[in-house]
Design goal:
Blueprint: H1 2-10, H2 12-15, H3 22-32, H4 37-53, H5 56-70, H6 75-124, H7 127-133, H8 135-177, H9 179-226, H10 228-233, H11 237-289, H12 295-336, E1 346-347, E2 356-364, E3 370-379, E4 384-389, H13 395-403, E5 410-414, E6 419-422, E7 431-432, H14 433-437, H15 446-455, E8 471-472, H16 481-495, E9 499-503, H17 511-525, E10 529-533, H18 537-541, E11 545-550, E12 553-558, H19 560-566, H20 569-587
Parallel strand pairs: 1-5, 4-10, 4-11, 6-9, 9-10
Antiparallel strand pairs: 2-3, 2-5, 7-8, 11-12
The structure holds adenosine-5'-triphosphate.
């Protein structure tokens, strides 16, 4: 249990889910912004206009200073300057507010689309990928990372856009005033560039380490909860507690490092601020001394720089949150951009869409020994194959490889595009009986549902307290195992897939319901290609062909009669099963 979590922490790139690179993240964001690009152009225009208007007060104050010094400032001048400042404050604020609102609309929509895609993709990720990375990683990406990006967006995006516009517009304004002022500021800018460079090198690494540690901790807690019975059964409480403590401590250490880096950023920003003001003041003094600038112009320059310091600091300050959000964003996009399937290994057979064909299939769990080897298999459209074998022979793995939830390490799998699987763990979703039945057939009418229930011998489900409106699953009416199996079979009937894979679909049945479930399974399989992972050999006998697996290899193949006649492995299993049935019948109470 501990292994997967510690591997994810030690080597996130090797065993975790993929993390998108900078280019991939930018490409995906650009793709997601489709439909909002006009709005983004409006954001840019309004931002430039707003920050431009913001320069009016420094210029007006500079003019006022010069007039006062020259003794030409009357009450009219003061009133005019005041009016200009008031108008610019109203207009500038309106423009910036519109920029922020428009940008917020754009990022909320883009983030919602990204979150939707993340959930969609998370549901269909290849199982081997999730098993290797650990579910904790996936949960952390769809919770912690989504929260980190959603929390950061309202502060980062306005700060980023307003700061960028302010810097550009102020530099142009300073150059228009007297070019040496712009040069003085430009000379100090490398200090900020240095701070930014240091931060970009340190920040992402520190934040990624913090998030990875959080993922590993989530995985530990999740595994302790899932394996609660085992933990109690083997008295592993203290060991698990220590493991969770160790992973929590790793989070604390990395969080401390992240906060230290943040404090160092603050100190360097203060240094940049002092240098900027000093540079403009010195240049102003020299220019005034040589009659190249007025005191009013120097005042304007200092006010512009003071106005600029806020946005610059804000920009560098949010780089912190921006880095953290970008790290989360690249983890979210890493999931979204996992390729949907590997077309080279699992695909539909051209010309025979409902047939199944496997050639040279080999499968290993996590690089271990082969669990399936040299599997060649043909099921014609409409044919039905039973897979039998001892426990651990590889039957479930074969079903998952054919269904496409596991990808073979080598060989090819052709299967119908529309494939549905029923596993032993039938999940009843919280919701009405109707919702549960129409999961894979959202357009089905109540009439379709009734027909499917009758065909599969599950009409008894209609007798639940509120019929199709009965709320089942967590918090609702609880179904027996046999009822849940019937529901799954009726759901599969409604989905009307070309290939149905029943993996131990009747294994949970109590003996009283076994015959009913066998009949229901036969009704579902009628008219479509079917694969039955048969533990009850009566199911195998009803199929056209039987495939016998032993330690991942096909050891026999043929019809029931052929295999019984051949006297091999299947014949032995059949004799043992028939004998077991007779003993059970003799031991059964007579009525
Ligand atoms: N997730 C997994 N990781 C590693 N090994 C696994 C995993 N799942 C199954 N195995 C191993 O693969 C082999 C085949 O397992 P599989 O469940 O496919 O057999 P099976 O024939 O369906 O067994 P059963 O009838 O008991 O369900 C077994 O040795 C099993 O321990």
């Amino acid at each position: 249990m501990t292994a997967s979590g510690s591997r994810a922490a030690a080597d996130p790139a090797g065993t975790g889910l993929p993390i998108a690179g900078g280019r991939e993240t930018a490409r995906e964001l650009w793709r997601l912004s489709r439909g909002h690009r006009l709005r983004l152009a409006a954001v840019a225009l309004l931002g430039i206009a707003g920050t431009g208007i913001d320069l009016i007060p420094p210029v007006a104050i500079g003019v006022l200073v010069d007039r006062v010094r020259a003794g030409t400032a009357g009450s009219g001048t003061v009133l005019l300057v005041g009016a200009l400042m008031a108008v610019s404050a109203v207009l500038g604020t309106a423009c910036i507010a519109a920029t922020v609102v428009l940008a917020a609309r754009a990022y909320h929509t883009v983030l919602a689309a990204l979150r939707e895609q993340l959930v969609d993709r998370a549901m269909t990720l290849p199982r081997h990928l999730v098993e290797r990375a650990g579910t904790g990683d996936l949960i952390s990406r769809s919770s912690d990372d989504v929260t980190a990006v959603a929390d950061a967006a309202p502060t980062v995006i306005p700060a980023l856009s307003v700061s960028t516009f302010s810097i550009v517009v102020s530099l142009v304004g300073l150059a228009a005033l007297e070019w040496p002022y712009a040069v003085a500021l430009a000379v100090v800018l490398p200090v900020y560039a240095f701070v930014m460079r240091w931060y970009l090198r340190t920040g992402p690494r520190v934040y990624r380490a913090e998030r990875t540690a959080m993922s590993a901790r989530a995985q530990q807690i999740l595994e302790s909860q899932r394996g609660y019975a085992t933990v109690l059964g083997f008295g592993l409480g203290t060991t698990r507690h220590r493991a969770v403590m160790a992973f929590s401590w790793a989070v604390a250490v990395r969080s401390l490092r992240a906060r230290t880096v943040q404090s160092m950023l603050n100190a360097r920003l203060n240094l940049g601020e002092c240098l900027s003001l000093a540079a403009v003041l010195v240049v102003g003094f020299v220019l005034i001394d040589r009659d190249m600038s007025t005191v009013g112009a120097a005042t304007t320059a200092v006010l512009m720089v003071l106005r600029l310091l806020g946005p610059v600091n804000q920009l560098l300050f949010v780089v912190d949150t921006l880095q953290s959000a970008l790290a989360s964003l690249s983890r979210m996009i890493g999931v979204v951009t996992v390729p949907v399937t590997d077309p080279g290994t699992v695909s539909t057979r051209p010309g025979v869409p409902a047939a199944v064909r496997l050639r040279g299939v080999e499968f290993r769990y996590g690089g271990g020994p082969p669990v399936l080897a040299d599997i060649d298999l043909d099921i014609p459209a409409g044919g039905q194959l039973a897979v039998v074998g001892r426990s651990g022979a590889g039957k479930t793995t074969l079903a998952a490889v054919i269904a496409g939830t596991l990808r073979p390490d080598s060989g090819t799998v052709h299967r119908p595009l529309r494939t549905a699987v029923i596993t032993q763990e039938v999940h009843v979703f919280a919701g009405t009986l109707r919702d549960n039945l129409t999961l894979a057939a959202p357009d089905a009418t109540d009439r379709d549902i009734r027909v499917a229930l009758e065909t599969t011998g599950a009409a008894a489900l209609l007798a639940l307290p509120d019929g199709l409106d009965t709320v089942v699953g967590a918090g609702g009416h609880s179904l027996t195992d046999a009822q849940a199996q019937l529901l799954a079979l009726a759901r599969l009937q409604l989905a009307d897939s070309d290939l149905a894979i029943l993996d131990e679909a009747t294994a949970e049945a109590g003996s009283a319901h076994a015959d009913q479930l066998d009949r229901s399974a036969a009704a579902v399989l009628a008219g479509r290609t079917g694969i039955v992972i048969a533990h009850r050999l009566s199911q195998a006998a009803a199929c056209d062909r039987i495939l016998v697996l032993d330690r991942g290899r096909v050891v026999e193949q043929g019809s029931h009669a052929e295999l019984v006649g051949a006297g091999g492995v299947y014949a032995g299993l059949w004799q043992a099963w028939v004998a077991g049935q007779q003993v059970a019948a003799e031991g059964a109470p007579t009525s």
